[in-house]
From TrEMBL:
It comes from Maliponia aquimaris. It holds the Pfam family Cytochrom_C. Residues 52-74, 275-311 have a biased composition (Low complexity). It is a single-pass membrane protein. Residues 47-74, 270-311 are annotated as: Disordered. The keyword Oxidoreductase does not apply. The chain crosses the membrane at residues 7-26. It comes from the Bacteria. Residues 117-205, 320-420 form the Cytochrome c domain. GO terms for cellular component: plasma membrane. This is Cytochrome c2. Its main location: membrane. GO terms for molecular function: electron transfer activity; heme binding; metal ion binding.
Length: 421
């Protein structure tokens, strides 16, 4: 029992010493409040404007051999005033200082620097600086912006707004790329690199050819497809007055007509009894029944006579069309090879593709959609795939958005036929 009391007494004594030390040292560094503190009076009145002009101090002459950052230092030289109050600070910006940040480019080309570039030069530059987000063909990666495609989609519920489908002026493309791209390293592109990248983007939208040289003179002359698609917003004059009329609340029409029911969407409860929609007449169902097998037999017998004509020989191809197709094939060279020594790359080699089974190369790993597609690469299948790859073969890994012009599709097929085996 005495041992427990000793332990308890020691603990109580230790706590007491701890509290005593805390009390003595807690406020040691806190200043005491004065007995008669000085009270704050009214704020001073504004400084009056002096009757005589204020003599501003002149900064000492800058050392020409000073370290870099002369523009920053010069900006702090004094010679100015602000709203009538002279503080001896600031000065007018020099023309070269304004030029360092004034990068405005107008639709007529005003402000474009001297330079040149084409799509052939722009492809590797685009691949190095832009493809990580925008894709090798400007088709966009994941949710990053798409820069090509989207033609004829602006009137849809989910339009695809790209340089080719939406933008009105080429000058805004150049200005944005030069000012803000690439992401995370803005204004690192040279003037010629910017011209080359813009040329590649325009080429992927079928606006210019791959060897067209963009310069400060030719770029404003390139017209984008949606240049005339923008109008002045006149809704305040043409629509607002209609919205502000007194609304009709009753007897607004002579009769009410039900034009559609939401039964397809399972919104309107199904009616019962005589009011329900009548079932289709038996005669209407019979009208769409297939014809008897006996009647279909003559058509089946006549089918061999309607067999498609054989594909024209390679030597019968139009040389001019083949040459045009070779030019169009430039859009495919990043992933495909064709001709002597062609090998599989990102995409399969294309020698003898016309007449070959879809997904038919044994030494290339196709996507599941391509491998399971079936069929043969004939003119119709090639035309549909070249115009809309992802729409024709679901799940294809080919990122190219497709050829927009029918003439390019025909030329490409002719070029591929020239390498048939």
């Amino acid at each position: 029992m005495s041992k427990s009391l000793n332990l308890f007494g020691g603990a109580v004594g230790g706590i007491g010493l701890l509290l005593l030390g805390a009390y003595n040292f807690a406020d040691r560094n806190v200043a005491h409040f004065p007995d008669k503190p000085q009270m704050l009076g009214e704020l001073p009145a504004p400084i009056p404007t002096p009757a005589a002009p204020v003599q501003t101090a002149e900064a000492p002459a800058a050392d020409p051999a000073a370290a870099d950052g002369g523009l920053v230092g010069a900006a702090h030289a004094d010679n100015g005033d602000s709203k009538g109050l002279r503080f001896g600070l600031g000065r007018e910006a020099l023309p070269e200082e304004i030029a360092a940040w004034n990068l405005d480019v107008s639709p007529d080309g005003t402000g474009l620097p001297v330079g040149t570039g084409n799509a052939l030069d722009g492809e590797p530059i685009f691949e190095d600086n832009c493809a990580a987000c925008h894709g090798s063909f400007a088709e966009g990666v994941d949710n990053w912006p798409k820069l090509a495609g989207g033609m004829d989609t602006l009137d849809r519920d989910d339009p695809l707004k790209t340089v080719g489908s939406y933008w009105p002026y080429t000058s805004t493309v150049w200005d944005y790329v030069h000012r803000s791209m690439p992401f995370g390293n803005a204004q690192s592109l040279t003037v010629d690199d910017t011209y080359a990248i813009v040329a590649y983007i325009l080429y992927m939208n079928d606006v210019i050819e791959d060897d067209f040289d963009l310069t400060q003179e030719t770029l404003p002359q390139v017209t984008l497809p949606n240049a005339e698609g923008f109008i002045v917003d006149d809704r305040a004059e043409t629509e607002y007055t209609v919205w502000r009329t007194e609304p009709c609340m009753e007897n607004c029409k002579d009769s009410v007509e039900i034009t559609m029911r939401a039964t397809v969407l399972d919104v309107t409860p199904q009616e019962e009894g005589a009011a329900a929609d009548p079932a289709p007449e038996p005669e209407a169902v019979a009208a769409v029944e297939p014809a008897p097998a006996a009647e279909a037999a003559p058509a089946a017998e006549a089918a061999p006579a309607a067999a498609p004509a054989a594909e024209p020989a390679a030597d019968a191809l139009d040389p001019e069309l083949v040459a045009a197709g070779e030019k169009v094939f430039g859009k495919c060279k990043a992933c495909h090879q064709i001709g002597e020594g062609a090998a599989n790359r990102v995409g399969p080699q294309l020698n003898g593709i016309v007449g070959r089974a879809v997904g038919g190369l044994d030494d290339f790993k196709y996507s599941s959609g391509m491998a399971e597609h079936g069929g043969v690469w004939d003119d119709a299948t090639l035309a549909a795939f070249l115009a809309n790859p992802k729409g024709e073969v679901k799940g294809t890994k080919m990122a190219f958005a497709g050829l927009r012009k029918d003439s390019d599709v025909a030329a490409m097929i002719a070029y591929l036929k020239s390498f048939s085996q």
